[in-house]
Structures are given as C-alpha cells and as structure tokens.
Design brief:
Distance between the termini: 38 Å
Strand order of the largest sheet: 6-7-8-3-9-10
CATH topology of the domain at 34-45 and 89-252: Rossmann fold
Helix content: 25-40%
Number of helices: 8
CATH class of the domain at 34-45 and 89-252: Alpha Beta
Order of helices and strands: EEEHEEHEHHHEHEHEEH
C-alpha cells in the first residue's frame, strides 16, 4: 500500500541575515495509513519546521512532499488551502476555539470552508458525530469557558476530525494540560488511531511519546532515530490506572473531576 505521507530529501533554509539557517536538512520519510508517529527533538531540532511543512503551512526550500499521492510542494496558495481543509486535521497546544461559539459550532467551522456543500442539518449531524467520538456530545451547547482544559482539547480534536482528514497533525496537544488530563487526552488519540486514523504528533515529553507507535527524533534538522515504540506498557498502565480510579469513584459515589 502506498504511504499516505512521503517526503524525499526535504530541506528548509531560512535566510536571516548573513548566515542562512538550515532548519531541516535532507529528511526523507514515509508514513503509512494507521500509523501513530511521535515527532521529537529539542528546541531548534527542526521538528516544528518539519511539522509545518507536513501541514502545508510552509514550503520546503527543496525536496518533494506527497500527501495521499498529491505533490504538495508544487501547489499554489489556493490549492494548499484546499489540501489543508480536505486532507489534514490540526490540533494545537492552545485549543484555538472561538470563545463566543458553542462546542458544536466550533466543530462545524471547517465545514463552512469545505468544497463539499453540506446542508445545515448535515453539518450539525457530522459535528455531533465527531463530538460523540470524543465523548462530548452532551456538552455540544457549552461555550469554551464552560469547559475544562481537557474538554476544550477534545472539542479541538473533534473539529480536526470533522472533514475526515487523511492525517491528523497534533502539535504539543498536552502542553497546556495537567498530567491526569494529558493521560485522558492521549487515550482519545489512541482510540482514534485504533479506528485507523493516521496521527503525527509533536511532543518533547517521553512519557507522552510512549502512547505512540513510532518515534522519530530530529537533531539539527536531521533524523537521528526512527524506530517503533517497543514498550507501550507504561502508557497502557496509566490508562488502566485512570480507568480503575474512575470506576472506583463511581462505585462509592465520589465526584469525578471532568477532564
């Protein structure tokens, strides 16, 4: 099966002053459908630059990038916008929800820019379905300030899913969350991946990377390690521990904090 993402000898050079900055240096990579990839590296490693190019938010200086068979590196601005809307879903650290708009309306938003013209009923049904996937259909009428940080991030995940993207790109999605809520959000990502959704996630946290299936580590714009995650038991134990704690709290009637 052809990879959903294929990049060949990708470079990104920024001309800032007298000395050019080589942010990405000749990266080649294939990502197949159903993979869950952690993109890691220290500050200045090139991971954010690579993520921006994967998200069609930035152009490579040279090299090729194929997304679902389309050569993204040759598209104009309008076609890039279409690709982002149709084939990519984005989840950011800061949630980026519209504050005066309900959870349902936030999720519907990408559909307004889609080439597929849907009726208001169809948009609502699809958005509700995505909220149901992340466990928030009962809070569809809530404003962001009525939701916890974890719930806001789940709304953001539902919004990223609403156009049925080929790849879900997540940039430090647990960066603004506490450890318990981070575990719950990573549980959502794992369930999505088990359903066949391809996920690429930027993170600098090793414990978060354990939830993924493959680690790609960059240093100075070069891939220095690309390997399968051999031990996901740490992440699985944390999810199991959280599930048991919630089940116990329900049993004794204690309130369970919302994520």
């Amino acid at each position: 099966m052809a990879p959903v993402v294929q990049i060949k000898d990708l470079h990104k050079i920024y001309d800032s002053g007298e000395i050019p900055v080589h942010a990405v240096r000749g990266v080649s990579l294939e990502i197949h459908r159903g993979e869950f990839l952690a993109l890691m590296g220290s500050s200045g490693s090139g991971k954010s630059t690579l993520m921006n190019m994967l998200g069609a938010l930035d152009r490579p200086t040279r090299g090729e990038y194929f997304l679902d068979g389309t050569d993204v590196s040759k598209l104009d601005k309008n076609d890039l916008a279409d690709i982002r809307n149709q084939k990519l879903g984005f989840v950011f650290q800061g949630f980026n929800l519209l504050s005066r708009t309900t959870a349902l309306e936030n999720v519907e938003l990408p559909l307004l820019y889609s080439k597929k013209r849907l009726s208001n009923k169809e948009m609502k049904e699809r958005a509700m379905h995505c909220l149901d996937i992340v466990g928030l259909s009962k809070r569809s009428d809530h404003m962001p300030n009525q939701l916890s940080g974890g719930q806001q991030q789940r709304v953001a995940i539902a919004r990223a899913l609403v156009n049925e993207p080929q790849v879900l790109l997540a940039d430090e999605p647990t960066g603004n969350l506490d450890s318990k809520t981070s575990i719950e959000v990573m549980g959502v990502f794992q369930k999505l991946n088990e359903q066949g959704i391809t996920i690429v996630m930027v993170t600098h946290e090793l414990d978060i990377a354990h939830y993924c299936k493959r680690d790609l580590i960059l240093r100075d714009g070069v891939v220095v390690r690309d390997e399968l995650v051999k031990d996901r038991s740490i992440a699985e134990r944390e999810l199991q521990r959280l599930a048991e704690a919630e089940a116990k709290a329900k049993l004794i009637g204690s309130p369970i904090p919302s994520a």
